[in-house]
Amino acid sequence: MQGESAFQSYLQGALEIFGIDADLAERAVMAGVWSIYEPGMDLLRDADLDGIEPEPNADLSRPPAG
Amino acid sequence: MSGIDALHLPLREQAAQIAAGDLDPGELLDACLATIEERNADLNAVIATFPDESRRMLDQAPEGPLRGVPVLIKDEWSLPWRAETVGAASVPGVKLEPGESGPYRALRDAGAVIAGVANMHELGSSSTGNTSLYGAAHNPWDLERCPGGSSSGPAAAVAGGLVAGAVGADGLGSIRYPAAYCGLTGLKPTFGRSTMAGHHIANTETIVSGPLCRDAADCRLLASALFGEEIPAGRPAGGLRIGVIRDPFWTNSAPGVREACEAALESLRGEVDGEVTEVELPELDLVLPAALLVAQAEEAAHLTPENLNALSPELSVINRGVLKLRALLPLSLTARAFLTRAKVRRDLMELFEGIDLLAWPTVPAVAPSLTEPMIGLPSGVESADSGNARHGVIANLTGVPGVSVPVGLDDGMPAALQLLAGWGSDALLLDAAEALERATNREFVELRPSDPEAAPLRSAGQSP
Fold first, then answer.
1. Nearest neighbour of B192 by CB, restricted to A15, A52, A61
2. Which residues contact A14 (CB under 8 A, 6 or more apart)?
3. Which of A28, B60, B173, B298 maximizes the CB count within 10 A of its CB?
4. Lowest-confidence range among A2-6, B40-44, B72-76?
5. How large a percentage of chain B has pLDDT more than 70?
6. A24 touches B: beta carbon within 8 Å
7. How confident is the model at residue B452 (pLDDT cuts 50, 70, 90)?
8. B352 contacts on A by Cβ (under 8 Å)
9. How many CB atoms lie within 10 A of CB A31?
10. ipTM score assigned to the predicted complex
11. Looking at the partner chain, which of B193, B324, B346 has a beta carbon nearest the beta carbon of A64?
């Protein structure tokens, strides 16, 4: 999702698909928060994560096994 | 010693005087409740007191390490006589009820007396503390500035002299930010070491309970109760290796904060005969989005259309919008966040094979105004939440412990250094924090926003 119009399109469709109501003030908050989230989310979406072994059942109290 | 005089002693000295018979814990509790009554109108740090229940806890207090000592608990845990409210009119999809939460049991079993419930940012969703069902808590250093969040009330209460210690919670930095803003020491324990029983997010892998106190020794005492075991005190071995990630943590902090932290780091290095080396952590830019997504995934089960369409109108519009946005974020991103977590944990493990501590400013700038929580950084003006989260969330994403230590003032407000250590090294962190206190002659942990007996609470614009 790049740019406000793309976000607004996604938002409109997603709210309808999931049946979630949102008034104008809530939509404005969603757009504002997304503008803060978006750069990081784009980085995460585009990051090369190939070859990274997942950590199933991670125990956050300890360093990763192996 | 009178109760009112003793209220300003460290937690450990209150406990020691009670144990020695030199201090009447009933008088101390009365002084605490009277001080809350007198000063809370300015601070709004405490949202509930219950003198009968507090006195009952005192009457039944066992001979524990905190016997008779009054403390506060964040509005994030249930008590047998009060359900938590998480600073909100309602929590989507969760029915909150009175009960014996883990922190309540830990405090009770240690002999502590819960004098009241402390305010918090609504749903724990911000580092500022400027929004709550009960109104914002205020920073005792400047009543018009943010106390930090989400453990806003615990920090404002301890800094304001209402109690010597309080229990907060840290899900994405929520103990360390308010500790930094209010000039306190705050410990985010290693994930899983402190009790979290009864928390409304039962499946959390990011949130921990932890202490906010005036110094590291008091944090050790209160954290030991939450851990259910004594955290041993010691001195860091000589040659402590301290890693510094310059960019962005140091380069993009406000100059006054950076200078205070640099001076503190040099003091610590000298005190422990250590060495400071620059290190790097790959994929640092991915840590913040990954942490946000992992944390929100823990709550996502309740974000159903039915629950979201029934959100209380008393919930702030910001949280109503954020909750609905969270429900719509693509699952693919969340999956990538968990993969990123795996990589960052491995990278951090490798990093801690070569160093003992990581150090950078807890927050990049001092507390902003309550009404407009923006901060000025070398990179420009941004929301305090964005800057703070960049500095804080790695500990929650990976599980490692962190401590925030006050190290000076900038613009008359507290600045703080954050130390992180490897998994399970909570004792080392507290040892290092105490070493820093020694190195600075306790100058910064002894700083107070005002002398509670001689001066009124500071209002905006007055220097300390």
1. A61
2. A20, B328
3. B173
4. A2-6
5. 97
6. no
7. very low
8. 63
9. 15
10. 0.93
11. B346
Q: Lowest mean pLDDT of A4-18, B94-108, B148-162, B229-243, name the range.
A: A4-18
Q: Which residues of B touch A54 (CB under 8 A)?
A: 338-339, 342
C-beta neighbour count of B53 within 10 angstroms: 17
**Average pLDDT of span B14-26:** 98
Peptide bond into B150 cis (omega under 30): yes
CB atoms within 10 A of CB B157: 35
Strand partners, B243: B277, B358
The percentage of residues in chain B with a pLDDT greater than 90, rounded to a whole number, is 94
Report the half-sphere exposure of A13 (CA within 13 A, side-chain side). 8
The model's pTM = 0.96
Contact B322 A29 (CB under 8 A): yes
**What pLDDT is stored for residue A2 in this prediction?**
54
Picking from B110, B46, B34, B41, the residue whose alpha carbon sits closest to that of residue B72 is B46
pLDDT higher than 50, residue A13: yes
Residue at B284: amino acid letter: L
Q: What is the pLDDT of residue B238?
A: 80
Q: Using CA atoms, how far apart are residues B280 and B179, in angstroms rounded to an integer?
A: 26
Non-local CB neighbours of B439 within 8 Å, separated by 6+ positions: B264, B267, B268, B270, B271
End-to-end CA distance of chain B: give it in Å, rounded: 28
